[in-house]
Amino acid sequence: MVATRAGRQHSPRKLKFNEKLTGKGLSTDALLKKLKNLHTELAELDQELVDVNSLSVARKELINTSILLHKDRGVKAYAACCLSDILRLYAPDAPYTHTELRDIFQFFIKQLTSGLQSADCAYYNEYFHLLDTLSTVQSVVLVCDLPQADALMLEIFRAFFGIVRRDLPKKIEIFMTDILVTLIEESQSFPSEVLESIMAQFMDKNTRMDQPAYRLAVDVCNKTAGRLQRHICQYFSDIIISNSEQEELQEVRSAHDLIKKLNHSCPTVLHNVIPQLEEELKVELVPLRVMATQVLGEMFADVNGVDLVKKYPSTWQIWLSRKNDRTPAVRLALVEVTKGLISKPPEIHKAIEEALQAKLLDPDEKVRAAVCKVYSLLDYETVVHHVSEELLRSLAGRGADKKHSVRSEALHSLGRLYGLAYPEIENNDPRAMSHFSWIPQEILHLLKLGVEVRTLAEKVLVEHILPLPSPPTQSLSKNIEIDESAWVDRLLTTMRYLDESAVSGLLAVSGLKIVHPSLYDKYVQNCIEYNGGVIDANRDAIITKLNTTIQRIARQSHDPQKVSEDLHTFAKLNERRLYKLLSTCMDPQVDLKALIKATNEFLKRLGEHSSAIVSTMAYILRRTSLRIVNQSSVPPLIRRIQKARRDDEDEDMDGSCDLRHAQTVLTYMSKHCPAVYKPHVAELTKAIADEKNSRLVEVCLQALAAIAMWDAKLAPSDKRTTERLMRFVRQSNHRQAKFAARLLACSKNATELCGEVVDSITNDMTQADADQLLAHIAVLAEFASSAPDAFEQQSDVNTAFLLKEVLMVPISLESNREEEEDEWVSDENMTPQLRSKLLSIKIYRNRCLAHASSESALDIATPVLKMLITLLEHEGSFQDDTQDDPRVKSRLRLAAATALLQLASVPAYASAIVPNFVLLALVVQDSCFKVRLAFVQKVVSALQTQKVPYRYNVLPFLTALDPDPEVIKTARAYVTFAIRTLPTAVRLEHFELMFIRLLHLLAHHPDFATTHEALIDIARYIELYLELVSSRDNVSLLYFLAMKAKTVRDADSTAHSENLYVVSELAQGLIKARAHAQSWNLDSYPGKLKLPSDILRPLPNAEVANKIVKTSYLPVETTTWLVDRAQKNVTKARATAVERKPAPKRKAEPKANGHSKSAHPFSDLVHCRRR
User: How confident is the model at residue 1130 (pLDDT cuts 50, 70, 90)?
Assistant: First the structure.
């Protein structure tokens, strides 16, 4: 106990109180009065200046059972105060036996427990005095010397933790803290039960510092940390040792949770526990290693984490090393707790960033997904200040991960981060632009990687990158206000940071290209007819139509089975309001406000009826509704162009970029979805009057022409507009002239007006300068297609002029080293003369298409086809010995090939092109990258819309050796999507049976040779086909077709027949190798097939057929190579292919510094046909 000191006194004071506290006949009031007097006097006595002998009578009477067990609470409260003062005055000795002291302290505890309920309770001052005395004098230390000290300590601790919860003044809590601290510091032994009572205060999941019991425990632990460290370490050791063999490990998990809480509030008590956790990181028991990793990670992330890292550097390093733990669960645990460490000081967050960067490539998909998810949980400030751009770009790379969960988390994180950063990007914050502006571009680049990735990318785009505006309230009333300009500004701001490919991808997913009525419109109509299954007539036909439509939609989706089931469920709901809302969302003429309202109501109602299908129908909404741009975008986009500076004035970079992209979006609308312009015809007509703004006039003319072609009734017909159009078609701006001509062809007096223009142009062309001539040719190209009768008035004169004075006149371009190396001239660098040549080819093509159904179609087309074939034969020239600019020749080759491809959409013309099919197909392998890419894109587009015969499906496989990944990715994406979505019968006809045509094409390849090296390259084409088309179900058919190639002869020549037999044997060997690698059974094909008679002929007799079958046409070296491949995995075997000679001519896409990529490995063979 502590002996208190007071001021100096000359003699000890004696207790004056001499009344009896016990005895018969003493009333409660009298006793209470006496105790009050005694308490008052005792409280005034000083410990150092008191005659303790004078206290003996009162000391003895106060512990009489008649007082300690008295029924009156006041008597006991005052008695407790008096006893506490007695102990104070006798300090440091106690005037009682051990038994009496035990009874006294138990008496104290009972009084406080039962009486101290609140600050307003009876006798509060007496209880306050009792605690004050025990705290100040520390008389409670006497408990430590008692025989039953442990039990009494436990009783005190439990009582105090219970009492402190009663909303008492802070001073009471301080007294209790001092008392408990004294007991811990002075006790000779520390009972485990007492420690458990302290730890119990940390067990509640919702503990906070505003909870008194928790606060008391924290204060006690912090003040006695030195004494508690060893005991707490032993406490946790006992729990872990006793429970580590159990499967559940619940007690161990609870102990680790307790460690986290102790670390947060009183970390110093864990001095001996941290090394113990460090050892847990090394144990064999995986659950314990996982728990230790989680706990230490959260401790390092806590407010005291930095100090923890500094105090225990070895623990930190060993914890970091768990990123390479052999067990994925441990690595996952480490990743999941790194969120709080990213914003720590550099020495910590750099180590964490390195770890997360490495774990993005972890072999376990759950770990990779967890890393991606971490960044979706961060706020903007944390990412912009503590996460490097390099790591964010690595995160974007996981968008192409093989596993769906990883892709989903990566793209969601990127989208969310961009959404958080967009306000700062809009404000041109340099750090935000550097860190986040590139995200949309990376997401859009993923669209080509397959339908699953595309679906995720589309979801992120419409939910995070370019979301629909949120109305100020959740009300569905008609009075909601939507800021359409801000919505459009976000689109243009995002497009500033997109490259050409990403812009194309964005527009492709905008929904503008959907042709209405679409497959989805048909589905809604089928649902209405289905009527929830209640059908009065044509039941089977209606059900069949619904099932067919659902199958077609499902085959295009990322999860065909679920989408099919959910679409059937939606049809069975038979909710007409949902059908109406879905139709509204899909309507190309819906405005932004109506779209938001319909979308919100649709999803809300659908959730009430069937929440399980909401995700699928949300996917349908994303694919079919105009959520990125729609008719509400038109006025803001036009205003953006109207407000732009005039052509001769400089724009700031962002303004110029926004202007260009506004024009791009409007142009795309005009090409693919003119219906969006219907409400804006008057505004567009008014805009073309601003002739000083050439961009505005061009865009609005194109839009008016598009809407007029969509619905001729909407074409403006007033006299002033007609006069303005007649002026535009005669001016030298070829873009304005082109669209004015197109609009003029849709006007009321089209025949008369167009004829007048044609006559005028015919008379003026011979004297026109280059720009004026280009504009005239652009007008003629439009009239050849949309006003053929007017064009035919002067067709002989004009076509002859174009051939002699335009197409056959050589031209020269300005020197440009980069373009000369690439054999290409960009659009912006094309001269009017070159544009005139390209438009001239377009005129011939348009004229042929315009007369495709007439009797004179072939008469008109034959010379045109001959001209186009000549351009391909002479590599873009009309004569073999001309020295034309290679850049011009590349442009003309592409124009000729594209024209032939478009003419092939007409059956009569397609037949005429067949003899030169190989020549046309080989444009896929042109020496110029731009020609190859553009032509492959044209081919893919024509095949997707089924505009050309399906024999053209062999062309994508000729990209197998292309040196640039973009070309082959385009081809692969088309084939993969088609194989996935086409019905079985269509897939058989369009791809599987086309195998024989691919073999025939390879046999006719001008670079075909029977040398081993050449055949290895030929094998690459076949391997690409097998990779994309072959399956367990069709491998027997493909092998059968390969064998059948040796039972026929080529329709052209014997030499080509032998080439075909070589390719046949090569294909058979490759199919065997693939079947072996995939463990497919190569059974005999049971069916009968008729081979295409236009390219193959039957053999003359059985003797010749038998001889061919028995003859081996492959070189021995190639046969050996095939045998080796049949014994190895096909994928691994590709890496052992024979080294090829470098190719000197074919060029890939130019790099940023102007140098080309590595040459095509097959280009030396490809160019044999052009020597």
Answer: very low
